[in-house]
Amino acid sequence: MNDQVPSTLHRGVKILHDPVRNKGTAYTEAERDALNLRGLLPPRVHSMAEQELRVLGNIRAKPTDLERYLYLIALQDRNETLFYRVIMDNLEEMMPIIYTPTVGRACQEFQHIYRKPRGFYVSYQDKGRIREILQNWPHKNARIIVVTDGERILGLGDLGADGMGIPIGKLSLYTACAGIHPTQCLPVMFDVGTNNEKLLNDPLYNGLERRRVRGEEYDALFDEFISAAKDLFPGILIQIEDFGNTNAFRLLEKYRHNTCLFDDDIQGTGAVAVAGIIAAMRITGGKLSDQKILFLGAGEAGIGVADVFVAALREEGMSTEDARKHCWFVDSKGLLVGGRDNIAAHKAPYAHEHPYIETLPEAVKALKPTALLGLSGQPGIFTKDVVESMARINDRPIIFALSNPTSKAECTAEQAYTWSEGRAVFASGSPFRSVKIDNRTLVPGQGNNAYIFPGVGLGVIVSRSRAVTDEMFLAASHSLANQVTAEDLERGRVYPALSRIREVSALIARDVAKMAYDNGYTDKQEPDDILADVRDHMYHPVYPHYA
Fold first, then answer.
1. Which listed CATH number (3.30.450.40, 3.40.50.10380, 3.40.50.720, 3.30.70.120) goes with 102-259?
2. What is the pLDDT of residues 26-39, one digit of tens each?
3. Which of 20, 23, 250, 304 stands 20 to 30 A from 428 (CA)?
4. Which residues form the catalytic set?
5. What is the DSSP letter of 526?
């Protein structure tokens, strides 16, 4: 407990308007005197537990998840400590509200529900002075940036500046799931325009009223942003998020070797999906090298999963060329095969020699995959015919409908279980309810990147690593799979319960940090107990004492 109130601390109404330090009705009698709060608050002092009870009552009384989202964002804007206490204590209930699927709807409505500025906007009109304006960010101890240009928000397409909800939501999960302090988190919208005509014609749209900047101008602006961020926040970790295919692979390849940077849509999705496959092997039997995966969708997420899966097979001694032959893709033009015209560079390594097949059902029947992964954003495309075919081919077919938000899922949990007679090993990107079938209750796993990126980020930050490598994501994948319990598997779930996610993140962070120490990516001396060091860095939402 502090004996004195720091002279620099806001007093009176100013501290009540500071979300980092505001305690609301939890200020003690002594604090109310010391901070000139008498008369500005109701007389009763409440505990945080009592405040949380009030918040939960209000949230649960709201008629829709979007209203609940707005209530929680308003709480975050006035009292971050209480916001994170509510989220952490009720993660399974709150995560679908602060992130997928509700955040997708919030982004679609962002210009209409805008209340108060949060995060940082870098736009095309700021070229030449990004470093100058970044100095306006109030928290000088930023350790992680999540940045998007809004071109491919979840499975919803180009939402321009309305995509700001994604960096805000992702960084809320960094804090809630991995304990990275809120003041160390910087959400950034990189606004270079939008090609969404509906937004451009909306008088309430908050972003630049122009079509997207491309080519050299885009690259120069992004390079200026990266340089300014690294200069102002030494050692900063940068996560690029929801960029379109046009830029995502290219930016990752350009910066990953000289910047502490990763792309969650590519690497995080890859790690979480492969973790689910590894865990599923404990249900289906067999080895990774026995698997043939058919992907629907050959964008960032699909190629990211395949790349991590190939890395896992290489770890077992297989050559890269042979490992890639275990991964097949159906995209918008049909089966990805050699000789097809105009194959994008990121798809080319997976264009195998095989007769061309036009449709997904035909591809399933011809290739006989052991696992079917949907990362296409095409709702309902895993039809009854597709699922029944997978169930005829495999005793325990692996079916992952990973597209977000829920409205974009390739099939529902109930459909996968019902059409496979309860034999499917199912996971999805967004949450689905448990399903009762044949006197059993099956709990679908949620293959959400929140199982991976918070722990990876925490490990990088704690170890002060200068790089984020593919090997770190593979280590995170194994770490996550190892934390799936026999009880989880018995219930059909190939991921741990969300209620355990802080412990999951801590163990992933330990393994990622260990790789940084072992491979010389950091100048920090390896501590005797890495896990203890990780836990010492994790933020806990408790009120400080000011008197």
1. 3.40.50.10380
2. 999 999 999 999 99
3. 250
4. 99, 170
5. P
